Structure prediction request, 151 residues.
Amino acid sequence: MALIECYECKRSVSSEATACIHCGAPLTEAQAPARASSGGSTISFGSLPRNKAVPEAFVAAPAPAPEPKVMPAAAGRRRRQQAERAAEPQLNADGVRPVEGWLKIMAFLMPMIFVWFLLRRGHSFQQRLIGFGWLGLLILCVAISPTPPPA
Prediction:
């Protein structure tokens, strides 16, 4: 097996190839003098015996890749603008972030955990004072409550 030059694209091609792998031009016997005949130089071991009881493996062809959706440029801008608006905290008329309903309930029931959410940016000093005041009042009530005598 030797490398020869393709007459069409002038690139190197195997002498045993029937066509150029680069341009597809067919190679004739005259262009590939080193091509071996199908005579005795080839060694073949034949095919391996097959077990007829075992079914043949079936390889499914890969599914074609779905084509990407084409979106107009305005849709991408609109989606980015909506994401920017959603990221901004909604403020009241006085510029203070409102305390959500879930935070009010949970800060009342378990202030040791949820009152710390009032430290987020945008909550007013009054909201923080009420939340931490409630936490302090509960801590004070627990501290001064009488403890039962040991049994």
Remarks:
- The longest strand covers residues 3-5.
